[in-house]
Amino acid sequence: MRTTTAEEGDRKAADWWATSVIRMAPGVVELRGRPVQDLIGSSSFPALIWMMLLGSEPTAGQARLLEAALVAGVDHGPQAPSVAIARMAATCGVGLNSAMASGINVLGDAHGGAGQQCVELLDDVVTLTAEGETVETAAATVVSEWRQRNRYLPGFGHRFHPVDPRREPLLALVDAAVAASEVRGLHATAARAVEKEINRGRSRPIPMNIDGATAVIYAELGFPAPLARGLFVLSRSVGILAHAWEESQSGLRNKGPIPRDVLPTYLGQDH
C-alpha cells in the first residue's frame, strides 16, 4: 500500500474541510471573500446571513425583506414546545447554550417545519405554471396532490389566530418588493392562488399564516426550501434565548411541564 508523503498529508488535511465560506489565516478572517473588518459596522446582520448562505450580496430591499421575515418569526409564546422545553431546561442547572439547544432540537417537521414544507408546495405550483398551466389550475392540482399525502396544507390556518397578525405586513412588503423589481412575485402569486383554492366553497376561511408568508419571502429571495427551516430556526432562537434567560432568573429548580400540585390523570391498567 502506498504511503502518504508529509507534503501530501498536509494537503490532504487542508482539503478535509475545504470551504468557500471563510478564509482564515494568521491575521486574516474573510467571509465569502470579504474581510470581516470591512463588514463590521457596514453590513447588517440579515445581509450577512444572505451573504453567508448564498455567497452573494443582497440589495438593500432584499435585505429588508429578509429582516422582516426574521423579525416576524422570533417568538410565539411559552406554549410552543421549543420554548417550553428551553424554559424547563434552564431550571435544570444547565447553561443557556444547553437550554437553547434543547428547545431548538425539537424544531422538526411538526413544530417548525411548516415554512420549509410550504416553500416546497409553492415550488410545485411555480413549476407547473412554468410548464404552461395557469396558476389557478396549478394550485388546484398541487392542493389535490398534497391533500392526498397530508392532513393539512403547511402555511395555511392557525390554531390560535383567526387571521395571523403577522401575515398582512409581510405580504405587503412582498408586494412592495415586487413593485420595486426586488423579487419576481411568482411565489406570492402561487400562495394567493393556493389560498383561494383551499377556501373554495368554505364559509369559514383558512387564511395564510406566518409560515406561509415567510415561505413566500424566503422563496422569493431564492432560498432553497431546507434553508427556510434553517432561517426559521435562526429567527426563533432569539425568542428561545429570551425565554431561557428569563426563566433562569426565576430562581425555580427543575420546573416541569405542569405545576407541582397538579397531578397527571391516571388512566388505569386497561390503557
UniProtKB/TrEMBL annotation:
GO terms for biological process: carbohydrate metabolic process; tricarboxylic acid cycle. This is citrate synthase (unknown stereospecificity). Keywords: Transferase. SUPFAM superfamilies: Citrate synthase. CDD domains: CCL_ACL-C. Its EC number is 2.3.3.16. Pfam families: Citrate_synt.
